[in-house]
Amino acid sequence: MGLSEERRARLDAAMDQAGLDALLVYGNGWQCDYLRYLSDFGILEGQGFALVTRDGSVTLLLDSAVEAERAEIECTGIEIAWSPEILAALEERLTRLGNRKLALAPYRLAPQALVEKFGAGKLGDGTGLIDRLLMHKSAGEVEAVRRAARLADEGYAIFRDSAKPGRFDYEMIAEAEAFFRSRGCPDNFQIIGCGGVEVRGMAPPQGKKMKKGDLVTTELTPCVDGYYAQICRTLVLGKPSEAQLEAFAVYREALEAGIAAVKPGARAADVARAENEVFRKYGLGEYVTSAYTRVRGHGIGLFVDTPPHILEDVEIELVPGMTIIVHPNTYHPEVGYLVLGDSVVVTDSGCEVLCQVPRELFAVGR
Amino acid sequence: MRRGLMSWSKKELPATVLAARVKLLREAMQAADLDAFIAHTNFTRPATVAHFTVFTPYWTDGLLVVPRDGPTTLAVALSNRMKNWIESTTQVDSILCGPRPGQMAAGALKTAAPKRIGIVELDQLPAGIAKDLKEGLGRASLIDVTVLAQALREKADKAEIGLAQHAAALASDALDAGLSAGEEEAGALLGEIERQARLGGAEEIYLAAAPDLAEDWRMSRITSATPLGTRFAVRATLAYKGAWIRLARTIDRSASGWESAGAAATQFHQALAALRAGHEIGESLAGSLKGLQDWTAESSTGNQPLKVLAAAKWRPYVEPEAQALLVVTARLDLKQGPWIGAAPMLVSEGKAPGKVLPAR
After folding, report:
1. pTM, rounded to two decimals
2. ipTM rounded to 2 decimals
3. Is the pLDDT of residue A8 over 90?
4. Which of A59, B160, B247, B302 could form a disulfide with B171 if both were Cys (CB 3.0 to 4.6 A apart)?
5. Measured between CB atoms, which of A66, A83, A112 is closest to B123?
6. Into which CATH architecture does domain A139-364 fall?
7. What separation in angstroms does the CA of B10 have from each of B15, B17, B159?
8. What dotted CATH number matches A3-134?
9. B341 lies in some domain
């Protein structure tokens, strides 16, 4: 059974359990996972809906002509429809469903006119149903994340080798992207930080020229068969300073502590706490707050950033088949923003680390 | 997710141009008796907000709030740590960061207490944001102002034309470099084109190919090892500092096909140059392109970049304005096989020929 058939079987079971006759999902190039789960289409431009009914039919409705053409080739066994007036076309289809029980996901991102027109009575909130499927992955889905993690390792090597004083930040990303496209990887999420103590986070490249002594941080997240895996690493241009090495050691200890906490029955909060305790031990507790960092890791899969979010107040239980990245990324007052993170899958006895790149502060361009 | 160069080139898009655009917007608001204007942005629907502020989010979404008088506000669902980055790429009076842009935008309008608020593509607003806005704005009337916003953008200004020219030149150079590398495998070709485009400063590039036109003329992404046929086509959809274009080329490596593909490209460029303000696009193309099977005309006057204006399969009566920026894609059925081309163009005034980009 292929990945899309496997997902479809799980979806059918979930719809049965919820007593749903049809499920409608929305997606665009930013939040594409719900749409991908039902249609296996990785949308880039415009927006789309997939409508799945209990008779087994799937319709993918897109408002971009180039995307509809692409979907005809990339998706099999489903109906593809193009309409530049997508809401009107959808309304017609939903009206034809009559009084059948229908749910929509993700509710918060779907166009408001749709929600307003049909209301919660006709169009229930199916977000939770899909969220559970997205979070708990099958063996086939985990294998896809594993393949993406291997590609992330290779991509990081390309990125690292492209770092040289005098190069621009966007040039490094160009090399990684060229590698991914040449390897058939259609998408990658990547942000970058470049500099010293003034750098407080990562963003898209801004045209910064790299110089000796700069820390270069990145999180790199290629997609294989729709599934993303992430790796976070930091390199230094030239010889690392003592302060940079000492700071990095804290992050490595925190990552190891976080990974050790990933096991069935543990909560997302336990992993975050394990990471953060290391920072607190070194007097860096202030830097694990929201003023300096967003999350201490997150789920990965058909989207680059999914539940469970690894935070000390998230009580989601970890179960085998969940794929997450553990990353104690944050600001360090002596050297600037540092990142280090590995994708892992929760197993029956603990977790399997999917990234193989050494957890080093790489020194390059010496 | 956006990961190309995202920076504000004040030389190419001066602050005075952005201020002039906001001034025009406010004049239109006054004429329409609007107290405030709101536009939504995320990186798949960023065109309106980018037009007035430069800003495009690389992630998540936001709202631009322009009251008829007083400071403009950008409310973005990014953390405060990203404020410096937003400031460096945005012209706006005030930036608010937090998880609920709808609440923040409504809060920014609280003192002004607007009665009539225009929202671009109101129907398409994400339900979560719309709910927060409606709750925060109380009894204010929310009015769809898509047509008003489009009218402001139908004629491109000099800066917008310059950015489109830059985007087209970047795509053209990247295609030239990739195609001259002599790759025999589609993924390797796309990888080289992508490298060149991003090294040149592209904010985004989406590549697609029809690797063997003898088999299939439809374009897709290449996700497995695929040899290039004798005749193939490649399309680059590229963004440069908020300006989006498409450029597609058909390559035929046989001697007779090479000549025919070249002649078709010339014919296509002539057909684009012949598009006139006030004349229906489909009629013009059909009259000047032999073997025309399919066509699409797109523009970036709404929130979505490169939204279809008209197409062979969907044909509302569209007459472009003079100085409109369009992207036209056409597929011809020729003796040697399908031919696909796409290019951006600027519709000229009067009887002057349109300008196909990149103009060298």
Report:
1. 0.96
2. 0.96
3. yes
4. B247
5. A112
6. Alpha-Beta Complex (3.90)
7. 7, 10, 10
8. 3.40.350.10
9. yes
